[in-house]
Amino acid sequence: MELTTSAELLDSLRAVSVDTARNAYVPYSGFLVGAAASTPGGDIYRGCNIENASFGMTLCAEASLIGSLVAHGGKGIEVICCRTADGTFLAPCGRCRQMIMEIGGPDCLVDLGNELVPIRTLLPHAFTGRDMNVETS
Length: 137
Ligand code: THU
Known about the structure:
Mean pLDDT: 96
Low-confidence stretches: none
Number of strands: 5
Number of helices: 4
CATH architecture: 3-Layer(aba) Sandwich
Strand content: 15-25%
Number of domains: 1
Structural class: alpha+beta
Bound molecules: tetrahydrodeoxyuridine
Radius of gyration: 14 Å
């Protein structure tokens, strides 16, 4: 897969992720995070972090994005961006990398701010459905 995407699409995803970060529910950390992703079909989905008094239940922005994408019938992820409300780039946490791998597949591109890298390089030797002899699309 080509490690580029259109500059317009990337600009849109970055803008949507910053915009969505403003909706984050973060009474405990005050750390506003937004994520935006495009599907191969051209749809854009968004998510923000949602914290909880039971801290371990906190949903990351990427996880809430993936929940929305799946719930709306979205298929696959082409590119995913994650930003704080002031536009600072954020690397997906380990759990989110696993979720991105599951739904986006190994070639899904992650915006690292100055480069796009496939999720397989951020999560090498990943545990996937293949380890259970299950092929996911
Ligand atoms: N957070 C995300 O939304 N995504 C990440 O990849 C890393 C962390 C959120 C979770 C929590 O609400 C806050 O950032 C501080 O960890």
